[in-house]
Design a protein that fits this description.
Elements (H helix, E strand, L loop, with lengths): L2 H18 L2 E2 H10 L22 H4 L2 H16 L5 E6 L5 H13 L1 H6 E6 L3 H10 L1 H5 L3 E3 L8 E8 L8 E6 L2 E9 L4 E6 L4 H10 L8 E4 L1 H13 E13 L1 H4 L10 E4 L2 E3 L10 E3 L2 E2 H10 L3 E7 H7 L2 H11 L3 H12 L12 E8 L23
Parallel strand pairs: 2-3, 2-5, 3-4, 5-10, 10-14
Antiparallel strand pairs: 1-7, 6-7, 6-9, 7-8, 10-16, 11-12, 11-13, 15-16
Helix pairs in contact: 4-5, 10-12, 14-15
The structure holds S-adenosylmethionine.
Length: about 400
């Protein structure tokens, strides 16, 4: 992102702040990430992977998508083994979609022929990257881009990986017993914050619904966009599953008294910081997901909770270890085998990896509560003798 783009975004934000005498932080974050011309996701830049700002599981190794493909095969069978839609929102550079479709094409051609993979993407730059990566499957007629509303009546699985953590959040703080909202103002020298009364009742309703009262002095994020999102997904899904992967916690842990400053974090060239007012438009801004709210709002809109677990449990259940052992056995160069092992470990390690902070939620509509492959317990996984 050029200096000119950064200053264009800063000027636009300052004008909005001046004309409204301050804006809720959620508006600031929305513009910083999704401003049509200068927002972080709308400019041309490498965001994901080694040359970008952050890694995602699908950028770590194709094994992530290959294991999810196994779960999708079972979902397809549960729905009768006929036409099936996989909808993925926020597909980044399209690697998860690619790994799933490559796997299905070679290992489950019948499923591949019957499926339609729909992508919903807000960022023109990411859409362009997805089109390039997915050329082969587009030509095969499997991939179509669309809006959420085009999916009304969908039967299949609605998939996302790290979508919700990129939604704009309201920031609130408990002061003298009352929740106050963070507004962004301009003090003459730049962006700064001011606490004001809540911008909407939905924030009060949100905490009432989850039964959590933030501790005095604590700051926390409220992702109202995620509530609207799960309602929207529930309404378009006729029959099937919603598979959501993201980092986050159940509400009690997300809003625990010891989490004084909340979870808002910015990413730039693989460094994290907690200052969303620097490099505006040139760094990602994220926050952890409240999985209690996703489950609760989902339930109220017809989505049953089928599975909720850590990413490492989910991947192990789907055969992570067997896949790792097979890949290692096929690798003749010991150094490459070691590198493969280290890389794949990132997906399941708790410390410094994605295994524990990332969670997987699977909700279902009109499918009952089936026993899913990912629910296989670690003690039931049979490994070849001498595997380790
Ligand atoms: C952190 S990236 C996700 C990465 C990707 N899923 C992966 O596995 O590498 C967030 C993605 O969500 C997209 N996004 C954010 N808000 C969106 C929305 N409301 N609708 C569609 N896509 C959205 C962004 O453009 C980006 O592609």
């Amino acid at each position: 992102m050029t200096e000119k783009q950064i200053s264009g975004l800063v000027t636009s934000l300052q004008q909005q702040i001046a004309s409204a005498s301050g804006i809720p932080f959620s508006n600031f974050m929305e513009q910083a990430l999704y401003h049509s011309e200068f927002g972080y996701y709308n400019t041309v830049r490498t965001r994901i992977g080694k040359k970008g700002d952050f890694f995602t599981s699908s950028s770590v190794h194709s094994c992530f998508g290959r294991l999810i493909a196994r779960q999708l095969v079972q979902m397809w069978e549960l729905l009768g083994g006929k036409c099936f839609t996989i909808a993925e929102q926020g597909a980044g550079e399209g690697h998860l979609c690619l790994d799933i479709l490559d796997t299905l094409e070679t290992e489950h051609p019948e499923f591949y022929r019957q499926l339609e993979y729909r992508l919903i993407e807000i960022s023109p730059d990411n859409r362009h990257r997805q089109e390039e990566v997915l050329q082969h499957h587009c030509l095969a007629g499997r991939v179509v881009w669309c809006d959420l509303s085009d999916l009304k009546g969908m039967e299949g699985c609605f998939l996302s990986n790290e979508l919700l953590d990129a939604f704009p959040v309201h920031l609130v703080e408990k002061r003298a017993g009352h929740l106050q909202e963070v507004y962004v103002i301009n003090d003459g020298e730049g962006f700064c914050e001011e606490l004001r009364p809540l911008s909407c009742h939905a924030i009060t309703d949100y905490f009432q619904r989850i039964g959590v009262d933030p501790a005095e002095g604590n700051r926390c994020e409220v992702n109202l966009a995620a509530c609207d999102w799960i309602e929207g997904v529930a309404s378009i899904l006729e029959r099937g599953f919603v598979l959501t992967v993201d980092y986050g916690y159940l509400a009690e842990e997300l809003y625990a008294p010891y989490r004084h400053g909340g979870t808002l974090l910015c990413y730039h060239q693989h460094q994290t910081n907690d200052d969303p007012y620097q490099r505006v438009g040139a760094q990602d801004i994220t926050s952890h997901i409240d999985f209690s709210t996703l489950q609760d709002v989902g339930c109220r809109n017809g989505l049953d909770v089928i599975y909720f677990g850590h990413q490492y449990q989910f991947l192990m259940g789907l055969g992570f270890l067997e896949m790792l052992i097979n890949m290692e056995n096929q690798e003749t160069d010991p150094q490459k085998a070691q590198a493969l092992r280290m890389n794949l470990k990132t997906l399941i390690l708790p410390e410094g990896g994605m295994g524990e902070s990332f969670k997987v939620l699977i909700q279902g509509k009109n499918v009952g509560i089936p026993q899913l492959l990912c629910q296989k317990r670690i003690r039931d996984i049979g490994l070849p003798p001498g595997a380790f």
